Structure formats: structure tokens, C-alpha cells
Amino acid sequence: MDNIYKIILEETLAGYWDCYLQEDKVILSAAFKAMFGYQDHELPNTTDTWAKLIVPEDMPRMDECLKGHYDSHGEKPFNIDVRYTHKNGSIVWINSTGRVIEWNGDIPIRMVGRHIDITEQKNTEQTLEISEETFRNAFEYSPIGVVLVSTAGKFMKVNKSICDMLGYTERELISKTFQEITHPEDLEADLSLLQKTLNNQIQTYNLEKRYIKKDGNVIWVLLYVALVRDKAGEPLYFVSQIKDITERKKAENKLRESERRWIFASEGSGGGIWDLDLRNNTIFHSKQCLSMIGLDEHEFSNEPGQWTRRVHPDDRERYVADVRAYINGETDIYTNQHRVLCKDGTYKWILDRGKVIEYDENNKPARIIGTHVDITDQKQQEQHLRETLDVASSQNARLLNFAYIVSHNLRTHASNFKMIMDVLADPVTSNEERQELSGHLTKVSEQLNDTIANLNEVVSIQTNVDIQTSELDLLSYFNRAIELLGNEISLWHVHIDNQIPADCTLTYSPAYLESIVHNLVSNAIKYRSAIEHPKITIRYFNENNRQGFTIADNGIGIDLEKNGNDLFGMYKTFNGNRDAKGMGLFITKNQVEALGGKIEVESKLGKGTTFKVYLT
Question: What pTM was computed for the model?
């Protein structure tokens, strides 16, 4: 029977050993020695041989494990991972298990066991630890505040940016709820949106709100919130991204205050005065009115139309229409903002207001008096504010992209890890299968590491108006997406015809390209035909110096007449798929257009869909 067990161990590539503890005698199998690069005859069968192979730093752990097994009379198992030195000098990780099978009272006489090479598994574990550390760094060192919040509102995890923003230490902030630091006037709106998210009425939400800092000061933030659910759809926690917009809010308030001052100044001083006499068809402009545009009184006659000719061509039509509408009684007040040509060739913005003060015998306007106010500075401030708001809107869109990429891309990696680890944990899985799965783990961890690196780039994009790009190999991104989706492709027997040439390179954002390709390929699989063998064809094109690709499938198709206008809309779904979030195509379109590209679609119900993506 012993020989049968030994044969089984040898066939499964596990080295066995048989040690007589009270004498210097140990039987080391040929497979045991081969693990370390030795022929059977090269190593004597002694305990000293075994001891010399173990890395010295690991010997104390080995001795302690053996002692625990002896002292417990075999109740405490002998099972330990230890490093050995290979003949070529490399390190081999070994899982060693054994049991004392003969005793003389409490004295162990004979012990047997086996060795299994777990080097590749250990290397994979180390790689995963590095990937996890990279992700933690992406969270911790994000330039915006990132927090994990329980469904009850308690802070679970916070990064340095939010602590600096609010003036709390990490420990202090984790002891609080978001309700405690939210401005009372903003709390109801936040709680209402949070409850809608928990009720699955909305998937995410964002709003501008105020926080109360530790020192009592109030700051304005742009808050984006997404809910993470478990596989059963139950809420786990919220992921919130928080950006300080206090300065933007101050600018808005300053602009509103500026507008009030201009109105007060206009009403109080009248600014420049004009007086239109409709009976005599003449107009008077005061000295202050003309000095605004650099003219003296003698340089401007009382003939109507001179001011109109100086109005900027782009504003003239609206200016004339507003005046006529007021004179004709179509509007109750006259007010208009337009640019006027100054003597020095520049343009100034003028706030123009007027009121009828006399009517003729037919109750028609006979005289209108009005004011001109120079609002050039105000317009410049408005332009600056619009630019500030554009930056904020762009950053908000990128926050949405970041959450989407995290949700979609990392979810694929997590699913792959879970599937592989479930199989590894299954006791019926053979050692050969474990070896193969260990290799898959390594590949998945490498792909996860690449994705996290791209996420780091997305984080930097959120604080930079200019999206960072680099020269990319288009084929490699499709190969990566196909590999990540390999389980679904295999499950549904999808035929992928990837015709992207091997030498195709273009300049693009790595994170955006990965997200665009992954989303379109996964959609083609998700909406496959139920009656035809699924097929996806991928091609590259270069039309008029615009590069891109097409993804064509023979799936269920889309009714473009019915849904074409909403196809790329947020939260729009069309095919009754309960897993559909209505975000994929919305995000894809935004990512494509962010770098000046565009996306087109052709589709027929039951015939399939073709997406054409212009990346450049």
C-alpha cells in the first residue's frame, strides 16, 4: 500500500519523504530532489541534506511548526510554506505537509509527508499585492476627495485630499457621518437623492452642496455619488468623489453682486442719456454717452441710424428687432445688450434701456428716453465665469468617466479573479488544473495592473483640462478586451473576426481607448442573436486622415427610427435587458468626442449593428 501512495505522489509531481526521527535516516523521493534540480544520486538521504536546502531565514518557522506537531501528539497539523534553494541558485517555494505515523509514548519515531512546488502561486500572490497597493495609492493620492460611505451615512474610508479639504484627521472624519458635516440647508436635497439611489430609482447622482469644516468655515463642493451593490443587488456602500468649488461659487456671487451694482449705478446716475424724438425723427446723445465710445459731441449728429451703424454686425439684427418690438407695443420694456464700435477701433459692451415718456394723438410712442451703460468689464467677468464653469463641467464629466471605468473595467477583473479562486478552492481541482489556473491568475493580475495605471491617468485628467494622450497600439487594446471577455466569448461561442492590422498606431488617451473598446465589444456580445451563431467583425479605417475602427455584429439590432435620438442618452435602454444601465453608450460617446472624434451607428432589428468610431 505504501508503494501505491508513493506512486500516486510521484505522478502528481509531489515529492514525498519518509523520516526516521531518532536516527539520521530519511528517504527523499526522486521527485523531491528533482524539484530543486538534482538527480536522485546527487543528494544523500540524510536529514542534513534536507536542512541544507532550506533557506536559513525560514528554518526557525519550520522547527516551530514541527515542534507544535510533536508537542500536540499530532493534533496540530504539520503544514507550512517554506523557501528552498534550487541547484541553479534560484528560490523555490514549497508547501510541505506531513504526519508522525509511529510513536513510542510521546516520542515521535517515524514521520512521512509530501512536498508541492507552489513557486508560481507565491509569485502570483506577490503580484496581486503590488496591484492592490497601486490601487490604494490611486485612492489615497487622488487630487480630489474620495470617500467610501456606508448606507447609513457613516464615513468608512477617506483619502488625504478630503481630510485636507475639511481640516479633519482621518481618524476624526471616520468617526462622523456626512449628515453631521453637511450644511443644514443642503441636507434634505442630499438625503432625498441618496434615498432614490437606494431605492434603485437612479444609479448615481451629483449636486453642489456645502460642508462645514472643522474650524467652522463653510466650503462649497461638487459631489458625485455612486452606489456599489453586491451580486444579489443589495446596497453595500457609496463611493463619493468631492471637489472643492468654493472659489467658483465666490466668482458667481461676485458676478451677481456686480450686476446689482451696475443696475444701481444705471438707475442712480443714468449713465449716458439718449433721447429719441419720433415726431421729428431726431435723436440726442449726451456727452457721457458719446465719451463711452471715445467721441466728442461735434463728431456725432442727431440723425437716427448713426448709433445703429456702429453696433457690431453680429448684434445689430437683435438690437433693431428689440427697438421695433418695443415701439410696436410687442414688449412691455426695452432693454438690449450690444457691442458698439469705438473711435479707436475696439468694441465696448453697452447695456441699452429705454422707456416711452410721450405718446401722440393715436396713442403711439412719440418720445423715448433711455440710458447707455458701459458693461464691458461685466461681460469680461461673465466670459471668465463661463470659462470657469466649462472647466468645472468638463471635470464633472471626467469624474463620471472615472466612476464608469472603475465600475465596468475593474468589475471584469474582479469577476475573473472570483471565478479562478472558486475553482482553486474546489477540492476536486487537480494539481495540473491548479498550475494552469495560477498562470491565468498571473495574466489577470497583469491586466488589472494595466487598468489601474490607466485609472491613475484618469484621476490626473480630472484636474487637467488637457487630456493626456500617447501613441497607442490599437490591436493590443482589442486583444486585451477580447481576452478579458474570454469567458463570455467562450460561453456563447462568439466568433471574433479581428482585422485590425498589427502595425496600426494612433495618438489617444489610454484610459479612454480601453473603455471605448471594452464597452463596444461587450455590448456586441451582450446583445447577440438568439437564433444565429454570434459573430463580431472588427476593422480599422483611415479616411481623409481620420483614423478609427468599426465593430459590426449580427445581433438583435436597434430600432433607430424609434430610438435613434435617444441612443446615446444617459440612462437610455432599449432591449429590455435588466442588466442594462443606460450609461455605456453615453459615456462612450462623451469619451470619443472629448478628443474631437465622433461615433456613428447603423442598425436594423434582427440584422445586427455596426458602430463606426472616428478616434482622430
Answer: 0.32
In total, the chain counts a number of residues equal to: 616
78 forms beta bridges with: 98
- 333 and 460 assigned to the same domain: yes
87 belongs to a structural domain: yes
Strand-pair partners of 27 = 18
Q: What is the CATH number of the domain that holds 551?
A: 3.30.565.10
**What total of structural domains would you count in the chain?**
4
Query: How many Å from the N-terminal Cα to the C-terminal Cα in the chain?
Result: 71
Q: What are 117-154's pLDDT values in tens digits?
A: 888 887 777 666 555 555 566 567 678 888 888 888 99
Residues 171 and 318 occupy one common structural domain? no
Smallest Cα–Cα separation from 420: which of 433, 407, 410, 402? 433
Of the candidate ranges 142-151, 361-370, 406-415, the one whose mean pLDDT is the lowest: 406-415
Do 156 and 187 belong together in one domain? yes
Residues pairing with 350 in the sheet: 338, 374
Contacts of 579 by beta carbon, 8 Å cutoff, 6+ apart: 526
Q: Are residues 442 and 302 in the same domain?
A: yes
CA 559 to chain centroid, in Å, comes to: 30
**What confidence category does residue 256 fall into, taking pLDDT thresholds of 50, 70 and 90?**
low
In a domain, 263, yes or no: no
Q: Please tell me the distance from the alpha carbon of residue 304 to that of residue 324, in angstroms, as a whole number.
A: 14
The closest of 164, 131, 166, 160 to 146, measured between CA atoms, is 160
**H helices within 175-286, ranges in order?**
178-181, 184-198, 246-269
What nine digits make up the cell of 593? Answer: 468626442
Cα separation, 496 vs 512, in Å, equals: 22
Cα 327 from Cα 494, distance rounded (Å): 71
The letter for the amino acid at 26 is V
Q: Are residues 302 and 442 in the same domain?
A: yes
Segment (H or E) for 312: none
The enclosing H or E element of 108 equals strand 107-117
Q: Is the pLDDT of residue 540 over 90?
A: yes
Taking a C-beta distance cutoff of 8 angstroms, is the pair 192, 177 a contact?
Answer: no
Residue keyed to cell 451677481: 256
- For 48-98, write each residue's pLDDT tens digit: 888 889 999 999 999 999 999 999 998 999 999 999 999 998 999 999 999
What's the Cα-to-Cα distance from 267 to each of 21, 80, 608, rounded to whole Å? 106, 88, 65
The boundaries of the domain holding residue 587 are 466-615
